[in-house]
Amino acid sequence: CFVDLLRTCGKFTREEADEYVSMGSLNGLFVLGRSIGLMGHYLDQKRLKQGLYRHPWDDICYLTK
To answer: What is the pTM of this model?
Structure first.
């Protein structure tokens, strides 16, 4: 959808649109969305006066000593 938008909006040439895609602009949008979500969770936990949630290590560690 993002690539189609770049190619058909009329503001970029086909080469410019391909360059934006090849340099990782889709990854940048993904990181931006994840960062906003993380900040939202953090602020929500502060608002509710809860500590930051930590999942138990023994449930996520595959290798133990």
So the answer is: 0.56
